[in-house]
Amino acid sequence: xxxxxxxxxxxxxxxxxxxxxxxIEQYAMWLIERGHAARNLARAVPMLMRFGAFAQARGxxxxxxxxASVDPFVSDWIARPDHRRAPGPPRxxxxxxxxxxxxxxxxxxVPGFVGHTRHRVPREPFAExxxxxxxxxxxxxxxxxxxxxxxxxxxx
Length: 156
Prior knowledge:
This protein is mostly helical. The chain has helices spanning 9-17, 21-33, 38-57, 67-79, 92-109, 127-136. It starts with 8 loop residues before the first helix and ends in a 20-residue tail after the last helix.
């Protein structure tokens, strides 16, 4: 599958020869199934290869050992000199850009791994307030916003 996205067979062979090769290939299929562009693979695969080498140098031999190496790898990656990065402190999003593909792959291959997930907003943020209000006024037929009721403030 990787041969469709990398022009040089040597690159595909290097990925498959890595101890994380099957995990990286599984992650690549997962990305493609979700409609991600090939450029996302071109950015993520080399980083995952470096992460695998970094984790292996720290003693990781199984996929379950990998989560302990995520934070040190991110710190190490940010600390290394990079000619493409502006001088000064790294931009806040850089940590996320490094961590995201690694944690996505780990979610696929390490059972129970969660990692850093973003805060998810409930689908109906006012549902809890409506339930509270319905306990007080069960016959209310007008939407809450028509009465100027704030978020759980119930000002009327």
